[in-house]
Specification:
Length: about 200
Amino acid sequence: MLHILYIIAITAEAMTAALSAGRRDMDWVGVCIIAWVTALGGGTVRNVLFGHYPMSWVEHPEYLVITAVAALLAAFIASIMTKLKKLFLYLDALGLVVFTIIGCQVGQQMHLPYLIVLFSGMITGCAGGVLRDVLCNEVPFLFRKEIYASAAIVTGAVYIGIEHFHGSEMLATVLAAIIGLTLRLLSIRFEWHMPKFVYRDEWH
């Protein structure tokens, strides 16, 4: 089930990434690269940091094909996607929790400390979007007021907590996904935001 959700998530992430590339007037190659970075970048950053190989897209090159096709499709149906913005926000929230749980599982397989397992989950869930925004010359979505990284942290904490107290992996996965997804969707619905730090004074 988690693998099916992962395929859905990377497909949706690639399609929304294509629109970001389109807003920067990128060519087809650029669209595909932004899609790959967004959909697969979180796991890639995690693997590089923790020395976990092979990369998922090296072991499963079909992920590159799936995300490229999804991105190019999005470029052709961009006007339709605009009308489905809310749906893709929900799919993005799903991707966040799925990527986070997978990242936590990878950290556990490597027998990392709990805090680093949580960090592994957050990186997997969030880093792809950060890379997308940097490459598209935007302030990363993660660093703005949205409850995004916080939702990833909550998802990972619930997953790790249940596993620590010897709950089944299935129970940990389901509850973490439900709680993390609920938090992210509620933050979208009610426009919950993290406090912002605003500083305008010059130092010279």
